[in-house]
Every structure is written in C-alpha cells, then in structure tokens.
Amino acid sequence: MPEVKNRQAVTGAQAIANAMRQINPDVVAAYPITPQTPVVEYFAQYVADGAVDTEMIPVESEHSAMSAVVGAAAAGARAMTATAANGLALMHEIVYIAASSRLPIVMPVANRALSGPINIHCDHSDAMAERDSGWIQLWAENAQEAYDLTLIAVRLGEHEDVRLPVMVNFDGFIISHGVEVVDFLDDEVVKKFVGEPKVKYPLLDVNNPVTYGPLDLYDYYFEHKRQQIEAMKHVKRVFKEIAEEFEKISGRKYDILDKYKVDDAEYIMIALGSTAGTVKYTVDLLREQGHKVGLVKPWIFRPFPKKELQELLNGRKAVIVLDRSASFGAEAPVYEAVKSALYEVSDRPKLGSYVYGLGGRDIKVDHIKQAFEEAFSGNINTDEERYLGLRE
Amino acid sequence: MPAKYFEIRWHARAGQGAKSASQMLAEAALEMGKYVQSFPEYGAERTGAPMKAFNRIAEEPILVHSSVETPDVVVIIDDTMLGNPDLVAGVKEDTIFIVNTTRDIDYVREKLGVKGKVCIIPATDIALEEIKRGIPNTVMLGSIAKVTGVITLESAEKRIRKTFEKKFSEEVVEANVRALRRGFEEVKCNG
Predict the structure, then answer these.
(1) What pLDDT, in 10s, does the model give residues B25-41?
(2) Given an 8 Å threshold on Cβ–Cβ distance, is B65 in contact with A364?
(3) What CA–CA distance (Å, rounded) separates A68 from A59?
(4) Complex ipTM, two decimals?
(5) How far is B110 from chain A (nearest CA, A)?
(6) In chain A, which residues have their Cβ closer than 8 Å to the Cβ of B38?
(7) Which residues contact B168 (CB under 8 A, 6 or more apart)?
C-alpha cells in the first residue's frame, strides 16, 4: 500500500481542480459564470499563478466551451472543461460532435437538476440527458473518487482502442461543495501515470493533413456510427487495465462495479454517486439485524455494465434500483437499463424502482431502509415506479 | 457494525462565517487523524438569512452523504435565532447546545425549550476585544474543543496558524489564537 503523504480536507471541486493541475492539460475552455462549478474557478487560479502551462479560454457560453475544446482536441491538444446542469444542456449539440469525432476530452460534471422551475441542486438529469451521446460516463461516490476518476479518465479516453470523450460525474453540492478527506498523489506520480498526451491525427500535423467534421451523408455516416459503437465495447477492458495500474500507485481499487457486501446478499440495491455511500451505511445497519443485503454502484454507467450485472444479479431474491432522475412517461434510466439487462438471465430476481432526490431533496438512511423493507415483505412490483422522500 | 459518527449542526445567519468555521473544525479534526465532513445547506444566498452547516467526524471513512438530522452538538452563532424551532429539530436528550450569547444559561434554555446541557460563550464580544472584528468563529472553535473534546486546543491552534499565516499578519494570527484560547477557557455550561 503506497504511503499517504498528502491528506487534505477539501471540496470535491477542489479535489478535481487539483487533479487538473497535476494533469496540466494543454487547453481548458470554460464559461465562467453560473451554472459553472467551482472546479474552473480553482483551476483559473492555478493558471493565474503559473502553476500550469494550460491555455485557458474563457468563452461566452457553454456551447462555445465545448466547441473550443473540440477544436483544441482535434488540433492535438489534451483538452478539458467542466460544467453542470443547464451548462451541460447548452453544450448538448457539441457533446455529440466530440464523441463522433472521437476526441478524448475529459469533462467533470457536477450533477445538478435541469431547471423548470429553477433549481440548482443535485440530481442526475443533466448527465442522463447525455447518456446516448457517445461519451463514456464515470460516476464518483465522493471527493476521493472524483479525484481518482478524473486521473483515470485521461488515460481511458486517450487509449488507442477507445478514443472517446469521458464525463466524470460527481454529485452537485453534496460532493462539489462538501468538504471531505482526500488523499492526493504526488505531482510526479500523477505526471508519470497520465503520461504525455496520446495524439492521433492532429489537425496541426500539416504534413499529414486530415479533415474533422466534414459532410457525411447516407454514404458513410452509418459506418462511422458503427465504429463509435465498437469503440465503446473496448472501454470496460481498458478501464480494468488502467484501474490496475492506478491501484499500484494509489492503493485504491476501481472496477466496473463497486460491490459492497454482495457475496451472500439476497437483496441488492443499485445506486449511482454519493447516495451509494449512504446505502453502504444502511447495508451495515440492516446486516446487524440479520438481513442479507448489499449494494452495487456502477463506476461506469456508459458503456452500461450489462454482462457484469447479469452475472451478479442472477439468482438474487430482489434488486432495488435507485434513480436520481425521472424519465417522464417511461421507466427511470438506471432502472430501465438494469431491467432490460436481466431479461435473459436464468433466475430473474424481483425488481423494484425508486426515484429519489430530485432537485437536491435529501435522501436519508430511513428512506433507503424503507425501500429494502418493502422488498423484505414481498411488497415489490416490477412495473411500479415508487418515490423516496416525496410528499404525496 | 455501522460506523459511529459524531455529528454537529451549526445555525447562523448567512455571512457570519459558519461555513468557514465548520470547515476549520473539520480541518482541525483531520490534524488529529480523524475522518471529516463539512458541508453547508445551500438556500437562496441572502446575507442575514438563517443558514445551517454540518460536520461529521469519525475514526473511519464517512459513508453517509445525507444532512445531519440527530446532531450530537448544536452550535448557535447568533442568539437572535433562539426560539426558531429549527434549532431543536431532531435533537436527542444528550444533545449539547453551544451558544454565542451574552445572555445567561437559564434564558437560553428557556428560549430553546430544552432540558439538556447548554453552554454559553460571549464569542462576538471576545472576538471584538481580541481580533477587533465581530467574527466569532475562532472563539467558537475553542468552546467546541473544551465542551466536546472532538478537537483539541492544539489541533485547532495548528489549523488556525496554517490557514491564517498564508493570508494575514502575525498580529492577526496571534489575535485569533488568543480568541481560540479564550473560547476554550471562558465557555460556561450548566451541570
């Protein structure tokens, strides 16, 4: 286990900004007013202090921020930005173009509600609106994971077999503004881990001219989409390889799924982000009372860990899926994906869907207990969406 | 066995520095090798509006990410908030109240409507005397150290020096350390 030399109490935003300082990207473009995260505020300070060599581009909108990093990445730069909520929504058009152009941009996203009425607090609607954009989605439970996954994201996106942009999701306010303990790696260790940017087909290589973003109609567009689909298939293998390397320098283990006390678990809950921690605590409480319960937290949501979940969930009594976003008129995004994955398993568990925490509504241990207890008593219905912490 | 967390809830008005105080408390506990959380409750940002901040402190990594509902300690920075029912929400029989006030303990207990342990400290007055500004944070940290032992005077002093030496003159740093010590020495509790 590598020695902990630099343990600090920081916000998730500070942790990520420090990761960005250590990565020292060539270009960071950001729109510097709300809905932004403090990530770029801290990072701008590093730029002003000369702590990084980064070209910082303050742009006039999030749409432009994503456009600028697309241009920079196509030119051959290691490019990053950060955003949240409606900022991500405004990027939407170019988010797809970044993935289609196979540009390994890394973007931390402080997950926050998409407004109407105005709300700036944590939920996952912003990232879920981008789940089909072709970006890899990593999800952090706490500030430590947000830091670690930002470092891993750089290697993952740039890998020869992947070449895709990566979104590092961390819960808005709860993680972005909450202070927690984070163990930082040494600058030199990070520098060695992320290495030099792995550049492919840069626009600035004038001896080998290439084109990005040309007209691509029914003659080849479909083939290019098929290549994106194929690239996603390599992500899990490559992530595991990089995670192993990361464990050697940090002592911290990452995988496709974070599995908590699942070995003998009859009832398994699935949750993304910071709530997974609260579920772990509840699992400990319920185990003390003799219940065989566990938690699965996907560290990767895109590509979806279908095979891993099939293997893990087959034969369990019940699986409860928590979603921090709704899909109006359809099943919630994580639930829908889990349910679909379990269609062909031999011994299907009972399934329950719970939507919680929209717009930052607090999710408490008692809510999580309630969902587990409904499953214990057989009160679980595959086709019914239920709500935790909601007044009705 | 689920982990045991020591939980603190701060009540103040926006702009009084409770968020920073809660963060400094976390950092002081980190100095002692503990695991910590510090987070505010974000509402609409209006100076003077009631706000809350929270701490969790533990010997092992903290998993829970919900807000603090059954605090072990309630810290009240502004005694004009006494009487607000939020101050006693979710409190247990053994919850300790630490209040920045020049009033006496009986007054505070009556306003709060609690029977348990109540501690008082004229933190704003001490801050005015020592720091020459009415920022009660460092005084409150001293009182919390004395009453709860969750941080020590030494860890808080170390943290104050680390944080303030970067930004302020030696005079200001020493004034804050004096304020911290007076918070420790002058806090009064019933029972």
Answers:
(1) 999 999 999 999 999 98
(2) no
(3) 8
(4) 0.94
(5) 31
(6) 9, 178-179
(7) none
